[in-house]
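User: I'm writing a tutorial on reading structure tokens. Could you give me a worked example: one chain, its sequence, then its tokens, then a sentence or two explaining what the tokens reveal?
Assistant: Sure. Here is the example chain.
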Amino acid sequence: MPPSPANPLRRLLFVETITAPGQPNARGRLDETQARSLLRRAATRGYAVEATRSGGALITWTVKRLGPADGQVTTSPRSVALDPVTPARITPAVRRDLEAVDDSPGAALFLAPDARTPGHGRIRSGLYSIPPATSERLITGGLLTLGEITPARDWARDSFGAILGTYTSVRLSLVARLAMHAADHHTSTGEPRGWVSMPHSAGRQDRGGRGYDRSSWANCACHWSTFAEDRPDAARRAREHRQSRTAALITSL
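And here are its predicted structure tokens:
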């Protein structure tokens, strides 16, 4: 039987790890509302934020301070890692269910006083239906968040019109959104060609008339791509792309 929808946002916890040079890591727990607020503050301040495929996020920034000498500036990296207590496992079937819920603002979980009532524990999202066992896994796995409880709709009434139970609205959790976003923006970089035949006027050459081509490129699952001077440059461009798309996601939450 699906868990009680009471206080669902408090149930979905993240482990927060704060890292700073020369200091022991500080750890704490955040509920979904607190984690969402933290991510929004980080994006507003221009910090680098990157979603992870487990459904978490990594926030990084650099603190600058005046040094002991005139005009000297010291820098110190900082980071905050948000890791879900239950890492997301987004299979193709799970993704279809989550997308069906996300596409329907009226998605709801039906709960009846008697578990033997037809439809008990089933999520309805328009014409899409998620079986009770799958619904339970999505909820207990932290991928769906339950909302307000209201009287059931027509499909949950008996032949005399009596309400057989209640339903509660369902939406994607922050864990699910971050995990799906990270999968949508999985990046890779290309291996440089190395020594190749080149015109005598081009690049670094050996005695055989070959030149060294260190150029690379970065690709993303979202079909974004760009050329780069070398592979480290490609990795930097890919990281900046992931961070910019994560910032856009956070702004839209």
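What the tokens reveal: Residues 231-252 form the longest helix (22 residues). The mean pLDDT is 83.
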